Amino acid sequence: MRYSVSSTGRRTSSVGIPGTGLSYVTTSYASKNRAVKPKPSSRPRTIAVSRTAKAKPGLFAPGYEKEFARAVDAYLAGDLAKARAGFKAAAAKDASNRVIADDLLAGLIELQSGSPTEAIPYLEKVVAAKAPLPDELLHKYLADSPGIELSITPLVKATLPWSSTLAALALTEAYQAVGRVDEAIGIVQQLHARQPNQALALSLCELLAQRGAWKDVNEIAAGVTNEDNVTLQLKLFQAQALEAQGLGDAAVTVYTECLRSKKRDVSLLKAARYGRGRQLGALGRAKPAARDLGQVYAEDPNYLDVSSLVSAMAAG
Prior knowledge:
This protein is mostly helical.
């Protein structure tokens, strides 16, 4: 059993069983951070699966495998309702938990269908399982699929392979959607400590930002370079963290790094230009601020409060 308190007020408790690799982690924050009430996530979760070779269960295949195969066919045909029922039926028939793909897909489909509460038990079972992913069902029926596309933030999606990272991020999304942010943070922190990658780092930054844990956000994003949409979103979180800590010039530097490449999602670039313009204005650097905010206004006059910012500059 371990308990720690960070300089940001984060309290982490963990209980592990020696020799098994099993542990449970909970994270909470000091009262000033708990005052930030998380908003349930309403963004759609995108799940894209592809398959080129159509496998079929044998005559004597177990019932859960037959249900799983039918559910995969239904999902690939675009019949979400039938796929949803099929994956849940497969999980129900797999009473001995010989596989976890049925629970994983059942949870993912529930998440995509806007039912995070129903998704949580399935995804918790996958995250707690000792069996590795991909399992025999995924190898047989989705061998040609690289994984799925999952929304990590409202602006960023990533294709994730069948792995513990995918299951953990899906469970994190479900927890976040129902307001269980501290539990989501605990899961991602634990997995990122074992298997660090950019997708986990981004998810963790988004969760920590909801708690106002800006020092932690900056520590995670520091050293990351703007190479793709995931890393660009990480740098945006870092810029916001620097702003929140009163480090305006440093925030401008990071926003500028975010804008160095135009080969990124336009929404992310817009957010970076808006953030830099707003921060430049706060620092009294009116001309460059007007250029950035004016460009955002020209592209999208209804973007956040850019219209009022531009009007205030024109009046001043």
